[in-house]
Amino acid sequence: MLADPRPVIRLPIAPVLVAGLRDAAWLSPSGEFTRVSLEEAALRVRGRPPLLCHAPATARRLGIERFPALDLLELFAFVRPARFCLPTPRGLAQVLDLPPPADLDDQAATLHGAARALLSELAEQPQNARLRSIAWAMARGGWPWGPVVLAALGIGDDDKRRHMQTSLAVWDDLPEWAEHAPEPPPGNVPVEPQEARRRLADLLGTGAEARPQQADYASAASAAFRPRERIGEPGFVLAEAGTGVGKTLGYIAPAGLWAEKNGGAVWISTYTRNLQHQIDGELDRLYPDATLKTLKVVVRKGRENYLCLLNLEEAARPILNRPQDAVALGLMARWAQATRDGDMTGGDFPGWLPDLIGRGRSIGLADRRGECVYSACPHYHKCFIERSIRRARRAEIVIANHALVMIQAALGGPSGGIDDSGAAATPTRYVFDEGHHVFDAADSAFSGLLSGQETADLRHWLLGAEGGRPGSRARGLKRRIEDLVAGDEAAAEALAEALRAARVLPADAWHQRLVDNVPDGATEAFLALVRQQVYARAAHAGGPYGLETEANPPVAGLLEAAAALDRALAKLMQPLNRLVQRLAKRLDDDAEELDTATRLRIEAMVRGLRRRAEVEVAGWRAMLKTLGQETPPEYVDWFAVERIDGRDIDVGMHRHWIDPTIPFAGAVAVPAHGLLITSATLTDGSGDIENDWAAAEARTGARHLPNAAVRAQVASPFDYPNHTRVFVVTDVRKDDLDQVAAAYRVLFLAAGGGGLGLFTAITRLRQVHKRIAADLDAAGIPLLAQHVDAMDTATLVDIFRAEEDACLLGTDAVRDGVDVPGRSLRLIVFDRVPWPRPDILHKARKAHFGAKAYDDMITRLRLKQAFGRLVRRADDRGVFVLLDPMMPSRLAGAFPEGVELQRVGLAEAVGATREFLAPD
Known about the structure:
The chain is α/β, with parallel strands linked by helices. Helix content is about 45%, strand content about 10%. The chain has a 7-stranded parallel sheet, with helices on both faces.
């Protein structure tokens, strides 16, 4: 009889640990279940490394430092890279088709079964040299799973000797992208309303439920896809679609039709990553063939969101001398082999992986400082970023985010466009979903900040790693550009002069020098006086939060320091501008000789240098020159010290537009031919229809265009009066966190879980979590919390969505990004009325936009957004509770018509919640 050639699956001989909030389940290697205290579990893990799920979270529950463990999530990331899994025992059971665990003991058994299933799957996978090499490198680095993984791969002692030359060089295995001829400009064939309706019907398919509101919405959205009549007068459509209308397919219908008819791209922009991926999923209806969709649709993000292959190579290069990094880099190499697009902020990158292997060895491998060397990189033709850019050139639908669209439009202008590869690819058609965030996104994109962190980043971009810092991958300007200026004496001189001038910018340890008041150089001298002014004048300087004060009048010596810094920045700006001129001259002089890659690289360097010199440094100088004078009327300036837990993080001078939709209109809207700005919450709820639409126009920039916006409003089909309840609790003191925490506890228990707790401050969230987590755990209700659990918001929301009886605490990011249909979200509790923070910027805007009415508008919109999370399907039921007796009745317009705002005591709210949410 022939021997079975398949590897033997050998499970590690190890105990299994699952830690709850009160105790832990311990499954011994012999199969004996015991419940132990968390203190006892903390002692036991110091012996044999246990098998568990999510080692960092387990260590936090045990109250100890990270310890060696056989983490099932690491094994999952190795066996199934770029595949989705919730970082819980239940999540593993779901993706591995195992029975869902009911309690801690079940979870321990599930982890044992998950280990066997993953190792069996690994043994059956097609073998390749790279997989074996990565496994051996990780095993050599001390990976606890190493021995059993090598056994599953059939790697014996003889094989190990052959694999001594370990390699993580997955970049060698990736396909190259190809260049294509430039696309012709798009046509101008309109999309008629009836065409949009027909396309929508095609997307929905025969037999679909009739949704007249969705068809009306698609018809209205088609107005953004008509030809422009005059330059500078885009077709501008404001379309509010209530939750449940189906606005995503409603605008995909005319957008896809316009792209087909005109051979152009429609850019769909969102504020949150979550919606980007929802839209990507909806586009399966437009492009049901996966291969065709790959050609027609691209999710486009900024360069800092993608894995840089050169950074991965440089991190992996010393792996033989630093085997302790092999586990993290091996898992990253496995992901790089399998990823669809290299996107590390969403997409197929596990949001829990940085917590397991460290941010520096995961998302820290992105190009976060703009140090790309473009075609000089050995991986240029395999680069995820360049591939994404080129796909976007030829796509019909590009899904982007507000920040990328606005920043690139501002930097590129009408001729530079979105495509940072150098192609003139300015979109002519945009859809801004989550349009209620256009104002906030523009506020961020078009603001100025002269701070320690920003100036230190510029020094780093120019000089690279200094002082021989070990392990640094920083590439300075000289390294990125010296071959491009070789033989050009003037350019080389400008480069040398710029690098000398850059030393006026803050070097390492600048934070501590400012705290100690021993600044080094003109930039730190200015920032030290800014810090002095903030601490001297800001209220609550001894507290844990960030501080701010007006820029004028300046403290003694600040104007002189600002003038000195202005002169120093001028000495930096001048050689950078000369360098731009020399590179631009080379593009002209050597036009016939330059190959495409070199030309694109020079153009990219010119854009990067211009961005730093003409936008960043010039902006700083303009801010410095107005100190001591009246700030230009369109701006507001202030000084701030950013702090976390009472520790200074950054110090600087801020400049914001009072109305940031002015630059948005100029940079994005005016050059476009058509824009659709849409949301479920565009208009205010004051009760005055014209004022409510005027608020939408003020928040989107519509009022800064010469032609009037098209207004469209489609009501939600949901029966809110019968499916929701709104309670304002009148007997809980919102400033007493014991009372607030008790209210959250009894309301979450009354609902049986499925609760979302929203907070206006991180400190309040953490204090409430600390007070209620154990009681909810005892009731079998898992409690998740942003700013407590070390996972990104998207992962927390994924867990919350999957665990029907879990509860989640969060702040603004959760309020805006949650889409949880069904019973998993049946209760929302807000700790208090979400008034805007009364800071210097808000004070200026309040005076500009209408005093008290401006406060009310912002607060109603926030309440609208929060309430909108509650009902996502026609059969959903939910309760909204506000723990603030000072809730004014004029804010009741935030809730749908017919929904009664009931002012009740806590006991009555608890009883009504329990009764309303009781399963039928």
